[in-house]
Amino acid sequence: MAIERPTPEQLDALAQRLHMHLTTEQASEYLALMQPSFDAYDLIDAQPDEIPPVRYPRDAGLRPSKADNPLNAWYYRTEVCGASRGKLAGRTVALKDNIALAGVPMMNGASTLEGFVPSFDATIVSRLLDAGATITGKATCEHFCLSGGSHTSDPGPVHNPRRHGYIAGGSSSGSAALVASGAVDMAIGGDQGGSIRIPSAFCGTYGMKPTHGLVPYSGIMPIEATVDHAGPITANVYDNALMLEVIAGADGLDPRQYAPVVEPYTQVLDRGVRGLRIGVLLQGFQLPNLDPRVADKVRFAIDHLQQLGAQVSEVSIAEHGLAGALWQPIGCEGLTAQMMHGNGMGFNWKGLYDVALLDKHAQWRENADALSATLKLCMFVGQYGLERYHGRYYAKAQNLARRVRAAYDQALSDYDVLLMPTVPILAQPLPSATASLTDYVARAFEMIGNTAAFDVTGHPALSIPCGQVEGLPVGMMLVARHYGESTLYQAAAAFEASIDWQHL
């Protein structure tokens, strides 16, 4: 099928948008010169796309009724059975709804994407199925994944399974809620500013944001390639380590992956913490909105780790605050360029593109007013930075990120693990339907003070439950060197085995 050729009038308008001016004669001559390029487009259009084959049968499934979805944590229910044997045989898995599952609808929490059906499986989906998992559906996620609360998804708010009417965290809200409620054994989340760890802290699950690039992001709708992460959310440490063993490693399709180092994570879980050097990050306890009850639970857990034999002392990393600030231009300008202007895929990277997703997501411009307030806010900041300052702050933030990473790396040369609260607050009530714009946005971003930094630097970070306050979970975050996931699991497993967090 031949692509549509521009008219002279269209070319003249296009030139003006590029700040150029053409005479009528020039426009006609340029049109003639452009024809060989368009012939090449025709040749490309005639070729079949190069996408992975779908190897396990499935049907589209269905949207569950409210009665069958009390937390609103499911977007779509289905059943895709994997191999008859493997590490995950007999385990049920939910996928965050920004992950491609061929033949099953995906809307990434946003009405502008509703109706899109992926034609291939994400790499991690294929790996889960090859390992014997059964995928039982797509978990509700926040509107294009732009919220640490659970109130921005167009399918409606996700309720915390431990207190109805309260935030479950985001943006992997449904993933954590389904695991915490026992609806599935395991789930996959995504994390660009804390979106695996935040809902894990609020719901009482174990959430691992792996080293940037350890888990392939191929087939997952990106926000910004330099902060995109995917990882496991589970009810215990062993399942988390097991799931990471299955999904980690290079796939040859994701430029986020440099030279990922994969280890047998489940083999370190009985090593204990005796002699492990834990640095308690002072700045992680200095967030202005830190609830003292959260701090008390985390400090009790620190004392317990010390009783188990860990060597614990405080460490100061002045760059921790800067790391969070760097997220603003990287996240906002980056997502505006890649996810929005780049129609969900962006440019200038080699890997697996979802052409159908690009076509569908490009339609956001036809109903931009329907985008969430959280996404609009990030786009306004990002577009201003791109237009007024030509992306210089994105560029400088990426340069400064190397300094910040080096500061954490320096501390991690003296310590095996850094420790701090995952989020500074307890789960808050879901905003009402009449909440002000300010309150709506505040509930989305008030908890990212400690989490966003490690999306910028790429360090692995694991949130583990370490107690409750009035029935609401508290999360403790452990951070290690790049590809140091085994150390995180070692510490988490020792804590989990020695004490019941639900009685703390």
From TrEMBL:
Pfam families membership: Amidase
Transmembrane region(s): none
Record-linked SUPFAM superfamilies: Amidase signature (AS) enzymes
Domain of life: Bacteria
Start and end residues of each Amidase domain: 82-488
NCBIfam families assigned to the protein according to its UniProt record, in alphabetical order: PRK07235.1
Designated name of the protein: Amidase
Originating species: Pseudomonas coleopterorum
